[in-house]
Design a protein that fits this description.
Distance between the termini: 34 Å
Shape: globular
Structural class: mainly alpha
Helix content: 40-55%
Largest sheet: 2 strands, antiparallel
Strand content: under 5%
Number of strands: 2
Order of helices and strands: HEEHHHHHHH
Radius of gyration: 19 Å
Strand order of the largest sheet: 1-2
Number of helices: 8
């Protein structure tokens, strides 16, 4: 958690800055499985996105069953972008423009989650920052240098679902339609 926010780790009382770029991936089993305990909201809020991978397709599952996949396969992966290119992409994301109207839209979504959506905890300021940043990245992937509300809608569920407690099977995206 320290790595995600402070961009450092502390080992035996000594703080070490992490190299740029870096990112953290964490996995969590479904809540219904034994041994899985929910993280406090303050810790979940540090995660930028929550993405469910679902089940493997039939061919991938067969390979797993046959034992033809291996963790050693990771070593065969080829780098597709350099550190410099990745840092340049981060700067391009920062340069994507967010109009006052789109920022107003994001603030309405945040307010809805806090005061009208019936959630036990609304989206935090950190969640709002994450939402804008991920929407900017989405916009850049779609070859635009400006945000539109559809960019925000496209990423809202991945940014908000792990931060909000809603009714059974309901996603934050269902609530977005109220404001769209």
């Amino acid at each position: 958690l320290e790595a995600m926010e402070e961009r450092q780790v502390t080992v035996e009382g000594k703080s070490l800055k992490l190299p740029q770029p870096f990112f953290v991936i964490a996995t969590q089993n479904p809540m219904s499985q034994a041994g899985t305990f929910p993280l406090p909201e303050s810790q979940l809020d540090r995660f930028l996105l929550s993405i469910s991978l679902g089940y493997p397709d039939e061919a991938a599952e067969r390979a797993l069953l046959e034992g033809t996949t291996s963790r050693a396969d990771v070593g065969a992966l080829q780098q597709v972008v350099s550190e410099e290119q990745l840092l340049a992409l981060r700067h391009q994301v920062d340069a994507v423009r967010a109009s006052p109207a789109v920022l107003d839209y994001v603030q309405r979504l945040l307010a809805y989650s806090r005061y009208e959506g019936g959630f036990s905890h609304g989206l935090s300021p950190r969640a709002g920052i994450a939402l804008v940043r991920v929407a900017k990245a989405w916009s850049l992937l779609h070859e635009r240098d400006y945000l539109i509300p559809e960019d925000v809608q496209a990423v809202l569920s991945s940014v908000a679902d792990h931060r909000l407690v809603v009714g059974a099977g309901q996603k934050m995206l269902n609530h977005v339609r109220v404001l769209a």
